[in-house]
Amino acid sequence: MTQTPEPRESRKRRVPVLAGIALVVLVAGGATIAWSAAQQGAGDTAANGSADSLAGAPGAPGAGREPSDAVTELADFSAHSDGVAAQLSYAYEHWTDTESDTFGFLPENDCANFTSQTLIARGWVEDDEWWFDESGDAYTHATAWISSTAMRDYLEEHPERATALTDDERSEVKAGDVVQFDWDDSGDRDHTGIVTSVETGLDGSVTILYAGHTDPTWDRSVDWAITELHPGGVAYYWSIPE
């Protein structure tokens, strides 16, 4: 169970420098996001196409990538806005992390903490209800930062930040939006992730893939999560304005 942080009388706002964000190289008006200089030096091979093409990698779609899967491709998020590209590149760089000097790590319960980090990478600024403790102790962050249900409650109170969508409205979901799950349809939120891609089939069907911590994965299918991983689960989304 996460601890509820003590209220703060004043708090200096800041936008942290996220050292883990991958190198951005401008190419033909777009940004090609590299994993890291070290991986490039190790002889990684660049992948052609957009981030959506990574869905064809081993293990995806469906269960998506597992931490044991070697991910060495370059990921191109240039089709997205600068903010979403930064958010997705941060998620791509850190989805297998199990520690962070800046944000800390919550074993078995780090999904909302990780999602919040990607929103900071996107350009969100902390406020008095949603913030992280600079000590790096994840248990002392704001409840809305580390709890899926508290994050839902926070976003409901801040429509300027995101708009709630049900799974019936998945055609309105886009990369960079927040996905939340109620695994047992009990009314709370049990898991939170970041939408990595939305694909529309010729028949009009919409496939949504996501990334997240706790059960670390990249490009996991929402449909697989609520039918195979947690049968009967329900997916919800938060649509974030560009």
UniProtKB/TrEMBL annotation:
<dbReference type="Pfam" id="PF12671">
    <property type="entry name" value="Amidase_6"/>
</dbReference>
<dbReference type="InterPro" id="IPR038765">
    <property type="entry name" value="Papain-like_cys_pep_sf"/>
</dbReference>
<protein>
    <submittedName>
        <fullName>Putative amidase domain-containing protein</fullName>
    </submittedName>
</protein>
<dbReference type="InterPro" id="IPR024301">
    <property type="entry name" value="Amidase_6"/>
</dbReference>
<feature type="compositionally biased region" description="Low complexity">
    <location>
        <begin position="55"/>
        <end position="64"/>
    </location>
</feature>
<feature type="domain" description="Putative amidase">
    <location>
        <begin position="87"/>
        <end position="223"/>
    </location>
</feature>
<feature type="region of interest" description="Disordered">
    <location>
        <begin position="44"/>
        <end position="68"/>
    </location>
</feature>
